[in-house]
Amino acid sequence: MRERRLPDVQRLFPSENGNQQSRQMMMRFFEQILTGVDGLKNPDDVNLRGEKDRTDRFYNNLIQQSAIPSESMPMEEVNSELLALLHNHPYHTKYFLTNILPMASIPGIVGMLAAFMVNGNNLWDVYGPAGAEAEVKVISMMSKLIGYDAMKSGGYTTWGGQGAVFSGLRIAIAKFAPEALLKGVPDNLYAFCSDAAHYSLFKSVEATGIGTDKLIRVRTKADSSMDVNDLKLKMEEVIALGGIPVYIVATTGTTDAMGIDDLEMIQATAGKVAAQFGLLRPHIHADSALGGFFAFFQDYDFTANPLEFKTEVLQAIQAIHSRMKHLDLADSLCFDFQKLGQTPYLTSLFLVKEAADLTLMDLHPDETPYVGHRGYGQYHTGYTLECSRMASSISIYSALLAFGIQGYQQLLAQFVEVNLAFREALRLEIPEAVIVNADNPGIITLFRLYPEGGSRFEEEVSGACSLSEIDRNNKFNEILFEILGKQRERIFFGDTKKHLLVPTKEGSFTALYATKIFVISPYTEVKHVPEIVQYLKTFVSQVFEKYAEASTISGR
């Protein structure tokens, strides 16, 4: 009987000694993936080539058919399977115009590859010295950019803007209720954010045990920024009932309308209210996951304009900068580098103005017997919610070095320029499309349609419309959502079902729906705008045709 040879599992690992044969083998596998992806690219569509019949039974079939092979599969075949996963996957061509799903840049990918090659645990510098070193560097870099004192600030990479909002809330709870880590969260702590804020805080108050009924939504203005007068009133109402405001999330770049809260006014108002009642000022977190990257213009000379931006682009960036220049007033903030930082998922950076705040969340040495708190190693992040942390800081570091301040300025300016061109073309070619975030000149355009044509946006915002009227207008816009969604292989637009919460005639509040154009691909240029708008125009016409047909049938 012939002896069966066991597979050589060592060949599935990078070499121990850096030998050329192993390196060439790895390069061959990388080349197969790169070549395979390039073969799937189609710059005139928004998806990679390949068919995927994602019917109702698609995932159920996967469950039934998937099983671990009994024997090792050759890597060439594994790569073929991996490439099959990418068939019909959204890809960031010039026609990718939806939400915050950017292309991972070459320096971001290379940085992640460097991190993977050593696979360190960023929890402790003994286990992950490269990630720890990169993390300290990027914390310093971004602290200096926004105006924090880098010798006092701190932070760490975390799981998205959600992780940053959650960490800020943990700090806030510890500031106001130091015994909460032992005895649980008191039932009189409250958090505040605007109606336009991301749902991260909703999830965070739920997860920390504060409870979603202790999350107070502050009214927003027409530009999607927080109404600070309403914040003052709501803080006073909470305090009058025995509550304690501990946390305020100021959104500095909403994901739908690019609304920017006034940090200076929020800090001043929160401080005055707190002082009036003899309380600590609430911890203020700037959710700058998206908009914070406009901090790269902090020291830009708008008069000399060294990068020679067009006048309208320069004015738009100045308008954004004027609202973003007070980021240093926040007690903590966030940069989602996997958004406008152009790095792969997941690469978010949580910053705190005072590194000492992190110790409020730290564990006792007895609770971390495996790592840290030894006579060796100087960087231990026991205060993070994660016990194991990937060294995503290396990818961030790579991108910061490769792009530099001017590289990010040029990229952001391109996004702004294209967005301005979209707005101009929409007004000229599709006057029925009413831009509802015209006060926010960033990289996003939201527009809304009305069955009768024209605009009723001002009426809706002022409370002059009934709930049924707004509901009808929302359903009208939803027709366009569905049409564009089914045609997204060609051009991928976005949408939102919660642009603003507006008052109704009946005294209630309801949300406005809007279609979204989100400029996020480096390959989308001004010259592509006419084609994209003409494409959109066809489907807007279809919405009105469908509505007219339905109205005729119903006898309206």
From TrEMBL:
Pfam families per UniProt: Pyridoxal_deC
Keywords on record: Decarboxylase, Lyase, Membrane, Pyridoxal phosphate, Transmembrane, Transmembrane helix
InterPro entries registered for this protein in UniProt: PyrdxlP-dep_de-COase, PyrdxlP-dep_Trfase, PyrdxlP-dep_Trfase_major
UniProt key word Kinase: no
SUPFAM superfamilies (alphabetical): PLP-dependent transferases
Signal peptide boundaries: none
Cofactor section: pyridoxal 5'-phosphate
Segments passing through the bilayer: 95-118
Family: Belongs to the group II decarboxylase family.
Designated name of the protein: Pyridoxal-dependent decarboxylase
